Amino acid sequence: MHPSMAPSRLPSRPAPAARWIALAVLLVFAAAPLVPPPLRDGTSLEDFSAARAFEHIERIAREPRPIGTRGNERARAAIVEQLRLLGLEPELQAQRVRDYYGRSGGSVDVVNVLARIPGTAPTKAVALMGHYDTVPGAPGANDDASAVAAMLETGRALLAGPPLRSDVILLFTDGEEPAPRFGSSAFVAEHPWAAGIGFLINLEALGSGGPSLLVEVSAPQGWVVEQYAAAVAYPAAFSFVTTTAELVGGSNSDFATFRNRGVPGIELAYLHGSPIYHTSTDAPERVSLRSLQQQGANMLALVRHVGRLDLDALHDDSASVFFSVAGLFVVRYSAAWALPLALLAGVALAVVGWRERAWLRILQSSGATLVTTALAAAAALGIWIALAGWRHSMGLIESYVFLAFFLALAVTVAVAVARLARRGIPVGADALGVLLAWWGLGLFSAACAPGMSYLFTWPAVAGGLVLVIRPVLGSKPGLHFVGWALAAGVAVVLLVPAVDIFYQLAQPRPGNPDSQALPFVAVPVVLLTLVVEFLRSFWVRRSEPDSRTIEEQKPA
User: Fold this and answer.
1) Low-confidence residues of the chain, pLDDT below 50?
2) Domain extent listing, the chain
3) Which secondary-structure segment (H or E) carries 199?
4) Cα angle at 318 between 313 and 320, to 5 degrees?
5) What are 496's strand-pairing partners?
6) Bridge partners of 95?
7) pTM to 2 decimals?
8) Cα angle 260-166-254, degrees, rounded to a multiple of 5
9) Up-side HSE of residue 323: CA atoms within 13 Å toward CB?
10) Whether 215 contacts 265, CB under 8 Å
11) DSSP 8-state secondary structure symbol assigned to residue 176
């Protein structure tokens, strides 16, 4: 046999158990930002306590609180009483508005409750905001008595510690639920404190638990995210979330009133279990104390951090790309780097493509990847719409059972398409073709929505680099395993939070059908399928030759 016809030696793979164990560890690491931190025992008076905050929820969320009702008045009186117990002087701002719910047939009073904690050398004030009204029929323990409780507990903790440089305003708005946002609109239009706000933190809840997410940022975005990353101990911040909020026009909460006027700030919210949103089941027993702890502790840390700054200073308004890793820290960089990083991934893939010299097979693999994702997404969308009509109030565990089903669906479609459309494609060409699909999405998002680009660009970079160095690794299974773990780790760690959050956005919300977005389920299924394809293509099988072997087997 001519030496050029001898097949090259392929790396043997480590025991399958090692890869499955590594994958399980990666999944736990990737899911960490989605799990609120455990409750802390023995909390000091200067720390935020979910247990203390929950007492306010039990006091306020005994009944629905729509504008102009007795329940609304009782909640307002309870807030005023608690502020006075803290030694503050609450102020009421009333405005006569039309009776949005049509119960009186005329007009009702919408009343904001305000209090101010003085600073030592204030420039502008830090404002904490949440609404105490609800829609008819909902006790609103999460939406938004949890915000009221977190604000009262935060105010107590601030007063127990050393004073800040800036004043802190506690703004409990009324009339947030009607689309006009009566209370916050009245505040920014008429109250003298509105012009002096230099930073705003708004709290919301669209469900019963889950991580306290950074869901929206107002300019200067880069500076605001920098302060969040520097201050909070339990970060859950992803630029694909804030980018999605921007693409859909932003939230329709009180935060929009200030965002539209250019007030710097953030909105924090949790959204797991959103089928209870705006329903009678949003009761105190449905509040996750761990989510409340994370929401409140992050707000307290952020207000203490920002409250020590000069809020009159000018800040860089450039956008940034950011994401939390394991709930421990936030990776962030300028959005201006999104396109160069995508081009870097393209260079790595081009090097591999030049070496493989199997472009038709590579394009065949890319096409099969796109067909796989399209089929899985279309099937999931049809199934999900049918399921949501049948189980429109599904529980959290039940919803994750359905998500596991969608993962199984993605695997099934990927295997079926692989058997039909990937026969004869060498391992290297197959992996490169899959990465080209990732890279295309990364390049497109880098140009059109940079905040989403990291979801696709970084896996493409990691996978491309692993393919570039694969020949250097020779037949050493341990080194190939490390390369696989690196590439798989980047894809899994970055994509798992996106799968979960987009899936939560797609949940049915019978109490507020206008806010549900069932077609969003196609997004997590697309991401799941891409990850499945990524792992499949990099899971090198001993019996499959790579394209270099095929080339070497050709007669000279």
Assistant:
1) 1-14, 541-556
2) 3-34+336-553, 50-318
3) strand 197-205
4) 120
5) none
6) 110
7) 0.91
8) 25
9) 25
10) no
11) -
Count of positions (residues) in the chain: 556
CA-based nearest residue to 79, from 178, 169, 163, 145: 145
Residue 205 has which token pair? 């809840």
N- to C-terminal Cα separation, the chain: 12
The token duo for 159 is: 């007063």
User: Phi and psi dihedrals of 145, rounded to 5?
Assistant: -60, -25
Closest listed residue to residue 540, CA positions, set 8, 7, 12, 1: 12
Strand order across the 213-218 sheet: 91-98, 107-117, 168-173, 125-131, 197-205, 265-270, 213-218
pLDDT at 527: 97
In whole angstroms, give the CA distance from residue 46 to residue 154. 9
Q: Nearest-5° angle of CA 463, CA 430, CA 24? A: 50
The sign of the dihedral angle between the CA atoms of 430, 433, 435, 441 is negative
Residue-by-residue DSSP string for 337-363:
GHHHHHHHHHHHHHHHHHHH--HHHHH
Distance CA 351, CA 267 (A): 43
Three-state DSSP class for 138? coil
Q: Residue 342 has which token pair?
A: 């995508």
Integer angstrom CA distances of residue 293 from 270, 301, 443, 464: 12, 12, 38, 41
Residues 449, 243: contact at Cβ < 8 Å? yes
Distance (Å, whole) CA 280 – CA 310: 44
The candidate with the shortest Cα–Cα distance to 164, out of 308, 305, 311, 47, is 308
What pLDDT digit, counting tens, does each position of 152-171 carry? 999 999 999 999 999 999 99
Tell me how far apart the alpha carbons of residues 174 and 94 are, in angstroms, rounded to a whole number.
9
Tokens of 420: 């039909």
Residue 135 CA to chain centroid, in angstroms?
26
User: What is the architecture of the domain spanning 50-318?
Assistant: 3-Layer(aba) Sandwich (3.40)
What pLDDT is stored for residue 41 in this prediction? Answer: 67
Phi, psi of 202 (to 5 degrees): -110, 135
Distance CA 474, CA 357 (A): 20
Tokens linked to 467: 């393919």
Omega within 30 of 0 (cis) for the link into 163 = no
